[in-house]
Amino acid sequence: MMRCISAHATTSSSSSSRPRRSNGGRTGARCSSSFTTKSGYGCLQHHHRVFVVVRGGGGGEKREERAKLSVVRASGSSSSSSSKVVAGGVDQSLNPRVANLNESKTVALTDLARTLKERGEDVIGLAAGEPDFDTPEVCANAGIKAIENGITKYSPNPGTLPLRKAICEKLKRENGVEYAPNEIVISNGAKQSVTQAVLTCCGPGDEVIVPAPYWVSYPEMVTLSGAEKVILKTDIKSNFLITPEQLEKAITPKSRMLILCSPSNPSGAVYSRETLEKICEIVTRHPRLLVLWDEIYEHIIYAPNEHVSAASFPNMRERTIVVNGFSKSFAMTGWRLGYSAAPEHFSKAFNMLQSQLTSGPSSIAQEAALAGYVELGDKGGAPVEAMRKKFEERRDYVMDRLRKIDGVEIETPGGAFYAFPDVTKLCGGEKGGFVEGFGPVKGSDEMCRYLLQEARVALVPGSAFGVDECIRISYAASDETLEKALDRITEALDPKKFKRSGSW
Q1: Helix axes 479-492, 381-403, angle to 10 degrees
Q2: Residues 414 and 301 sit within 8 Å (Cβ to Cβ)
Q3: Which has the least CB within 10 A, 53, 163, 321, 439?
């Protein structure tokens, strides 16, 4: 179940958190959300496989499966026995909590863009949430030395003591919060750290407050825990940030966790010290309410914005689970390393859960991360600052180009490396937009389908983040790539070609 609370409403309503199967559940069948390329088609919204068509001699065709955008699921089931699918005499039923999960659209679209490129399509992928820079040399060399020196065995379950100590020093120095090494659990990526926090602290009967737009995995983690999602809708008018008043109205006796990410994925919005202080003051009045504070983008932030940790406010350390990692700031996405910092009671539980899931993280990756924290110094030193400056230049370029497109509205992001333009004037409303030869373009899924087919640019629909009025554009790409992509998008959205919402 999911409750959704608008930024402009005080009432709540229940709605399904995932789309229903279409076309009788047949995978591979074309639907209104499919897109077409010269190599085949796929679907952005429903549970279809992506097929490419290989054209053979004599006009013959054969169909080859290349990727799946989402898992085919039985719809509306409340127990594994009612959703069983028998093939070849084998019961294929799944745990309903797993069956009810949605696949990440960001991952699916990134994989799809890669697949189409491999097939010879001239596709530009701006869907990935991944820095396009190399890992800092200091970190890479430390990883190489770890292999050469035989540091390739299992690490301690919560991570190596030297790295946990370095994390404690970093949190005290940069964030103003003190932790002991036994309050740090290092995991295989920040995603695992978030998942373990939600699964450990939340369960059936609990409510988890998730502001929208949200990172695509937050609601799915809540689903997996058995808790109920309470979605707080925001929009461009509020710069995609919840207000203290909105939070206060959403809290009930069942409220167990509030998930906040600043700078935000997908909007790049940053909570100011003043707003965050008011939010934390509200939280402290509710003993059951914890805060999961995701600060994975903390070093990718642009003046005059500043990063402030929720755990640094009075009475917040004991009720805050801080999650961070090395993927974004240190361009170490493939190294898979993140961590949580929380009071010992919670950290012990995270550590126990991790011991039964994955055990300790990579010993090699930990040596690389340790070098980053120890040798590069405050906020990652010169290499991280160089990346941050480049991202800021790209942000300014993308903002300038998007604002020149008629009908696009956008706020300047304060951090991260995403643009999150509102395209309501292009494809919102009852009818959406229209393109001759393509048809209606209604909502973010259709907009991304159109831009992939017409402009050969892969973006992520805002529906993936709970805000269908927007689309997400990653500017973690070279200047040349961004210029080419925005040229294509501008051409595809030319008013002479693309009729705006309500104008046809």
Answers
A1: 20
A2: yes
A3: 439
Residue 66 clears pLDDT 60, i.e. is over it:
no
Tell me phi and psi for residue 103, to 5 degrees: -75, 145
Q: From CA 233, how far away is CA 2, in angstroms rounded?
A: 12
Instruction: Give 104-153 as a DSSP string.
Output: PHHHHHHHHHHHHHHTT---EE-------SPPPHHHHHHHHHHHHTT--S
| Residue 496 backbone zone (phi > 0: left; psi -120 to 50: alpha; other: beta) | alpha
> Which structure tokens are listed for 151?
């540091």
Question: pLDDT tens digits, residue range 396-447?
Answer: 999 999 999 999 999 999 999 999 999 999 999 989 999 999 999 999 999 9
Q: What is the DSSP letter of 285?
A: T
pTM, two decimals, is 0.84
Please name the residue that has the structure tokens 């008013």: 495
The full 3-state SS of 37-93, as one line of letters, equals ECCEEEECCCCCEEEEEEECHHHCEEEEEEEECCCCCCCCCCCHHHHCCEECCEECC
The residue type found at 412 is T
Beta carbons within 8 Å of 44's beta carbon, 6+ residues apart: 33, 34, 35, 69, 105, 109, 445, 448, 449, 461
Alpha-carbon gap, residue 228 to 85, rounded angstroms: 27
Residue 473: pLDDT above 70? yes
Q: Give the tens place of pLDDT for each residue, 266-277.
A: 999 999 999 999
Query: Residue 416: phi, psi to the nearest 5?
Result: 65, -160
Contacts of 267 (CB under 8 A, 6+ apart): 213, 239, 240, 411, 413, 418, 420, 470
Evaluate whether 369 touches 375 at the Cβ level (below 8 Å): no
